[in-house]
Amino acid sequence: MLPPFLRNSYHRYKADTNRFTEWLIETATSCGIKVEQLFKETKPTRPGKITKIPLKAYATLVNAIVTHDIKLPKAIKFVLERAIAIRKKFTIAFQTGKLDEKADAGHLHFISILENALERLSSSGPRVSVAEKQTPRNDDIEDQIPELLESLVLDNKPDAEADQKDGKSQTVHSRNFEIEDEYDLELSETFFMAFCLLSDLNSLRDFIKETWTEYRDGMIDAMTAAVTTNSAVLLGKELIEDVFSKLDRSQFPDSQSIPTTLYKLKCLLDGIFPNLGRRRPGDPFNLETLESADWTLAMATLFLESFIPVIQPKCSPFYRKGHFGPVDSSKPYSQRSNEEKFDNDREAALDILGEFVFFARVKKFDWLKDEITETMMGMMVTKKVKLEHAFCLQVLLDVGNALGAKKSAPFNDLRMTSLRAKKNLTSLLGIIKKCPCSSWPKTTTQAVQGILDFNESHLLKDFWLPLKSETAPGFKHIEFHLLKENPVLAGLTMYDMNLNVQDLGLTAINTWKSVFPLLHLYNLLEHSKEVATLEWKDLDLFLQFHDEKSIFIGGKPDGIEDSFKKFLLFWGMPATFVSSLLNGTKPGNSKLRQAVGTPRAIAPTTVLGTAFHVALMEDQKASFSVAIVEKVLEYLESEPEATSSNVNAFNILKRKWKSTKTLTPLQLLTTLRRNLATEEPRLLFNYIGLHERCLEFYDKATAHLHQKLVQYNGPDYLKDKEVPLIVFYIMHAAAMSAKAHREMFGKNTEIEVGSVMLRRSGDQMREYVSGKGGKGEVACKELRVFSKMYGKLSESLEAKEKEEKDVYWTAIEDIVDPKTLALYQYGQLDGRI
Description:
By secondary structure, the chain is mainly α. The protein folds into three domains: 9-187, no CATH class; 188-507, no CATH class; 513-603 and 687-786, no CATH class. The chain has helices at residues 9-30, 57-67, 74-93, 105-122, 130-134, 141-150, 160-165, 189-216, 222-244, 257-269, 290-295, 298-307, 338-360, 371-382, 387-403, 409-434, 442-459, 465-471, 481-485, 487-512, 515-526, 537-545, 548-551, 560-570, 575-582, 589-595, 607-619, 626-638, 649-660, 665-684, 687-713, 726-745, 756-770, 778-786, 797-811, 818-825, and strands at residues 50-54, 176-180. The longest helix has 28 residues, at 189-216. The model is unreliable at 41-45, 97-104, 126-174, 640-647 and 816-833 (pLDDT under 50).
């Protein structure tokens, strides 16, 4: 079921009408009207009990309020307009047309009463008329958008529970109202609920299509698109479960009947008969109604129903492309005719459904599964078609149509990720053998090998191809067919692999303590006068991605003594030991190792990635869990507001969440997509490669400084081969040189005696990072190649375009007049229902 803070369209509609009714009653009561006489029940109502109000009583309440010249609050006007908009959308979509002009009189009467109330209450006082508000001129629409979106945060009393939390006692706000009309509704409220459900599902579809269009255009990465889509599908399934549990079973006996019933009803009211007027003999329905069949998900339901009889025991029904004739894919999907769209979708659906049958019969399928794959595999077992199956199939078709010729691009990205992972994990196994670490567990080595084996057998080779050949001999099977046809699964698998590699890279860095000492040394060398300018860009990016206050114990140190002190504290050394070292005590090697406590560890900065990684490790699913939702909401709570624009998608959501503690599914998904894209460069940062280069630098520095190190610390200074400790010896020697300099010449002397160890260390580091074959920005170069988002987070034209789209999806479910926002964003809304 949906989390309590998420609301579907019907819940929001009921809350809006309830809120407006509450305000009417409360305000009319303050004007002296005895509103109890208008109720069907004259007795005081208990909290939560439904109070029935005749619709004609609204006129009485409105008259009393208008007479007293009371202004309609902006928040109440907003919710009333929103309620009218969704009700009118339903009435227009299912109006009777030529069939029967009186069939929808009840719905029209209901809307007319509300619109009349809105107009009269809005005209009370110096307020802008409804007509002016809803028909803006193109030249001043940009000025109106901030005010329009500002109303999103004004509805700060979403329900009675909110009032109780505020400690307010308001009897009126605890009631639930049911409006009674003197006209009988030809289409019952159940049909309106089903319509709202399909409207929500289609909004999710539009959001998903735009998400993959952004991927196609290089604005986001495949992982962000896949995780966002998977979360949207999960929310869509929960929307279906939530609404269907409340539908009248006499009207809709099963969820499969929702698309078919509303499709037939739409055709009937439009005067078009789906089984007549077919242009081609093989068409299963009149393709003139394709738009309605698509919106109601009836076409996807038809594909599934026609496929179920094909499923036979011990047989996988793989589809031969072109079985129904050639499919013209030369034009973009939106520019094709209805016949071309249908042929394209039928072929794509039948092509992938056989894969789901095959994998549903594989006994040991312990691979990562996306929501679409798991849902469709379940249908192949039960052989029962439900609305959730039609929704999942249609989403898969939408993604493929949005990508067009780039449908296999996410799989190609996955292949590059697999090759990169193989290289890095193989390097890590080499490090484990070459530089063994006593605290590195064997189980982790086994995990590295396990990921490498899976990568080789399932991602670099098609593990299932031989089994498919046995199941259907003679059929020409395509390698990695499921991954190529399901971009969501390809993107999620890529996400899972990168999360595993990141986790192992950070584990290696924390176990060997390879990077942290070098960060302290690099910072010291950067600020040392005797060291010429040097730049290690990979370390700079590492610090940019992580909390330098944690690494440097409160912030970057200033001077050698402060640097040495923070370095010692980072290693977990006791304060007394640190003090003795700063005072000039020379510790023995054994005493030094005994003083080392528990060094600080670095944590991943991909907060959402970490939450998803836990879910993937537990059940091999990228579940949109409560923990992940909490991370998204924490992002809304903690991040500072941007000041660049009032029409900032993040600001809208942040203020709305703080004031109402409610979001719509699209608003939650927009925030998720935005944050996932921001995390992508951090996730792709090559920690294993940096770990390897740090160890390599320690070896070179040790060889370069060996004689000096033996002179200062004896031949056994690295007895246990703890190479990062070389930084301790360098900084200790530099600190003692600085201390001796002060004791000899005082603090104010102009004589400068630099540290030989620092100067030679700086020369060695400069040679390593900037010399011939320098390795100072390998990780940065990798990001420029593999990352879609690295370097694209600035205020570029592309970023502004992305921001405008985020505003659209942030506001589309809450905005009063979607066409107004669409004029600002795109020019016009599409022509669908």
